[in-house]
Write a structure and sequence with these properties.
The chain is mostly beta strands. It is built from 2 helices and 15 strands.
């Protein structure tokens, strides 16, 4: 459910809980490919039970940042009723249960205090505390985060992952998708013919080639980049263009994780 700008409308270790009903309904990373199993092990699926009938659908991505906490986008929070959500980690194929998955209810939702629903103002980040901690079963890992205020250079290679739409208005994958997506530096992304003033320094832009992008269903998921000797999650999928998701000069925009390190640590500690 990547939030789309029209101007802007809709785009975790100790013990396991008995799995919930595995029924899900999915709402691809455009230009991506099937990810290799057991690769992007910090990826999570945030799922929502809109009818309170035990039938969940994938709505957004997320990142495991501690055994109890998942990081996602604030705009993914449709309701502050934590009981309406569950998180699945170790997920690969949304429609198959193969034993790698861990399911947990959400116990508490913390949305950044600066989030006001306006994507142009930023702060599109939220943390979900799980009712039960995720554990290391060989298919999950806690993500490494960047150093405070770290900014990546133009053209730096990162990867976007998710179960979002493969084409705007098109089909959705059951298999986790991945695509290489280069960073667009702020000075370019904020040009009037790109995203202009709504591209803030607390955001990361990536893509914009008209081929690779995030799309609906990728929101809240990670932008993973290999920096300082480790894979680190530098971004949270936030918004993209209305209409076709993969538009030239309209890259996918992510919340810059390095701008929110202090806030993240204040919650999870």
């Amino acid at each position: 459910m990547i939030r789309l700008v029209a101007f802007l409308s809709c785009i975790g270790l100790i013990c396991a809980e008995t799995p919930f009903n595995h029924k899900v309904h999915n709402e691809r990373v455009i230009g991506g490919n099937d990810a290799r199993p057991n690769t992007w092990t910090w990826q999570a699926s945030l799922q929502y039970d809109s009818y309170n009938d035990g039938s969940y659908y994938h709505m957004c991505g997320g990142t495991i940042i501690s055994s109890f906490y998942i990081m996602t986008a604030a705009h993914c929070i449709l309701s502050m009723d934590a009981s309406a959500y569950r998180v699945v980690v170790g997920e690969y194929d949304l429609y198959e249960y193969d034993g790698s998955e861990q399911f947990s209810r959400v116990e508490m939702i913390t949305v950044h205090p600066g989030w006001n629903g306006d994507l142009a103002r930023g702060n599109d980040i939220a943390l979900l505390r799980l009712a039960n901690p995720v554990y290391d079963n060989g298919y999950v890992a806690i993500a490494e985060l960047p150093s405070p205020d770290q900014m990546l250079p133009h053209g730096f290679s990162c990867y976007i992952t998710g179960w979002g739409l493969m084409d705007y208005g098109g089909s959705a994958p059951n298999i986790l998708q991945v695509a290489l997506i280069p960073v667009v530096e702020h000075s370019m992304c904020s040009r009037p013919d790109w995203w202009g003033s709504i591209a803030l320094k607390t955001m990361v832009c990536a893509g914009g080639d008209g081929v690779i992008s995030g799309c609906q269903g990728d929101s809240g998921g990670p932008l993973s980049c290999y920096t300082s000797g480790a894979w680190r999650v530098h971004g949270v999928v936030s918004y993209g263009p209305s209409g076709m998701c993969n538009q030239v000069t309209k890259p996918t925009v992510f919340t810059r994780v390095s701008s929110f390190n202090d806030w993240i640590q204040s919650i999870i500690q």
